[in-house]
What does this fold into?
Amino acid sequence: MESEKLLNGRVSSESFEDLDLGHHIRTRRSRRARIGKWALRILVSWLTLWSIFNISTKLWKTFHKPQRVSCACGSSFAEARALNCRFDSLASAWLRPECIDEDLTAEFNRAGPGPDGSWTYYTDYDKTGTYTLDQIASLADTGIYYYNTQAWHLAHCTFNWRKAIRSKWTGVVMEARSDTEEHVDHCEAMFKSRLPLDYVGVVSAITFDADWAGLKHEMHANEGSMVSVFRHGLRNISKPAPRICLKTFLDNFLLRKHD
It folds into this structure.
């Protein structure tokens, strides 16, 4: 009898242990299931929010056209000064403060071959006279051109490219007439022209409105190519700059023949 009681007690004890173990296993499984469900809900919620944000961003970029910041300075010196505009030699234009890279323009003004790195601005193709920077600034929208060397022109191109790259961290706005693929194409043509660096054939104009895309044709009347001749010379042969452009093309052609 005693042995049977001991045996029954041992069996009962083992049964309780099995029941406790089973309950523990079921509890753990239930807890894991709840955690899994919550994790799945969080993941689905996160993916849903991410999808909504991603789609909303794409729709915003597709339908929202951001307004370009204007660099224009009106149509007179009075309007330009009222807008706090200043003449920028790198842009060959009067620009608003947010459109001027002060450090880069200062470097450009010291990158020439003259005393203290200055550039020479000529009154005509034959170098019969020169302008100061203040005099250049006063030519805005007068229809009077000034003339530069090929070295100035190439520097103008590379410094404008630098300005565009630097704008990513400086926040400076590129004026519209220089911020185009056509301006890059024009600069590429200048590098390929093989003109001597001291060659004077670059004809430039000063403006108050650097937003006007049409100025890309007026700013540089000389492109050293037949395209320039037809674009400027044959359409408006009465203007002084296109006549210089035609002469430049012929000079380029003769230079290449000698090469």
